[in-house]
Amino acid sequence: MNDASTFADLLEDVALQLSSLDPLVETPEAIATNAASVIAEYQRLNTAASESGQTAVQQVAEWIHAMLASFQDSLPEAILELLQGGQLFGWIELTAFALREPDEPSHLPAIAAELMSEAWPEPPDPALLENLLVNLHVSSQPTSVVVDDATPTQVERNPLAWATDIHPELLEAYLQETPGQIAETARLIHVISQGDSTIEQRRHAARLAHTVKGASGVVGVQAIAAFTHRLEDILDLDIAPHLSKGLGKTLAASADCLETLFEHLQEGKGLPDEYAPLLADMDTWEQRLAETAAELPPLAPMILPDFITQSGNAADDSDAEDLPATEQTRSGTNHLSVPLETVQRLLNLAGELITSTSQIAEQAQLTIAFGKQLQQQDEHIRQMLDELSETIDQQSNHLPQRSAHTTVATITAADNFDQLELEAYNDLQSASSLLTESIADNRELTRNLQQQVRQISEQVYQQQRLQRQLSETILRTRLIPVQSLTARLERTVRETCRRTDKQANISIIGQHLQIDTDILQGLTPPLLHMLRNAVDHGIESPAERQAAGKKPQKALSRYTLSKKATKFT
């Protein structure tokens, strides 16, 4: 079974057997039977992967098999919970697809997402996941090569640089998903450092730290992986009694450092100065906590009693109420990441469409003016025909009155009137009547044409209105709230205060103001520089302030953001 296609067939068969099991059985016997079937299928997958030389798949299968075996006797319901969620066979199907379609890059991020799902009781080791993804990559080295050999060299060169051989799809997914996870982790750690957190918030922060650690390990960013590993270990311990003894300050500084690490990663910078001292400080605290405190109670199984789930939901609701309105809205809204180049291209196309429609509107106005000129010309011709008809009628009055027995010959003989002249007169009168009727028909056609042109003009105006709305909507996709910068401004103040041993806070008004992305990015460096200078050079030390009769903590001047017309202040 050395062929990748043959092994993919076996993977699909295992996934089919797992997906065919009923996870909703209720009797203890049926639950135990299905749980045993799941473990048996993973044992079969483990054996087949070993025989086919698929070491990476075998390691993942062994990890899951060991986890399932630990639940078999004590909590088989947890196995069926994973089965119902699709975690047990989803990654297997995707691995089969990756083996069959080695040139398709989208399978690798999907496999990583499946194995890093929070539904797993124990997230995978980053090295295990990295080994699987790299070995499935079409341009990767053979499975016999030890993937970790290149990692130390990369770490020694720049711990904040991702691996050079990382797949672009994996890197893109990491850069899109990790910022939000780090921001939420930092927010929770700040809450925890103040001593106002719940056990669930600490568990959630630890899980997020573990997720960031795993994702960073996969892409080779060892500095962030090591840092979040320390945070996770500390959050898993009983830290409440030590927050007021200095641990709270360490956690708050670590939360700020974590966000700074990712910013430096995006900007291609090195490690921040506070990284090494904080890492050593966290190591010291971890040793002290391990000696004096017990670990937190283990995370509850996946199937919980109703009263626990209801309490958890109530706690989640209360936490949601504490969040800002924008955060609640953001969590319930689907977002799509679109490159700025695409948005700019849409704006250009919308502008060209508006210009084209304006030209059509001008042509419609010219057509309406031409129709009015045509109507005036028809009126002039009608007046001339009226004069011609009047002249013909005057000439007809000079002819003798005809009786019932009067003939043309009699008229001609009585008045010496030429018969050919009389016939020509009759033809002229007939032609005048026909011409008058044609002009009347032409007038009606002109009116219809003008009405049609006016309707077209109205539709063009409606189209212009819709196009303006389209242009404004596309333009709004470039707008982001100032609130997205607030956390970074506050973090800059905290970091500067720690560096200078001063105390200050900042208040920002107008955080919900929407600003163009390029403008906000251009404002960020000067704002940060201004805040650093304000703390460094504009505020005295706490001792100096107390000696002068002032409060130790200085409230920085309020920063009010407003927008009038096209100006931002």
TrEMBL record:
- Residues carrying Phosphohistidine: 210
Pfam families, alphabetized: Hpt (PF01627)
The GO terms this record gives for MF are: phosphorelay sensor kinase activity
* Residue segments, region Disordered: 310-334, 543-569
HPt domain mapped to chain residues? 163-265
Q: Could you name the domain of life of the organism this protein comes from? A: Bacteria
Record-linked PROSITE patterns: HPT
Q: Which UniProt keywords apply?
A: Phosphoprotein, Two-component regulatory system
* GO CC annotations, alphabetized: cytoplasm
Ligase recorded as keyword: no
Q: GO annotations under biological process?
A: chemotaxis
Which PANTHER family would you find in this protein's record? CHEMOTAXIS PROTEIN CHEA, SENSOR HISTIDINE KINASE CHEA
How is this protein named in the record? HPt domain-containing protein
- Tell me the organism's taxonomic lineage: Bacteria, Pseudomonadati, Pseudomonadota, Gammaproteobacteria, Thiotrichales
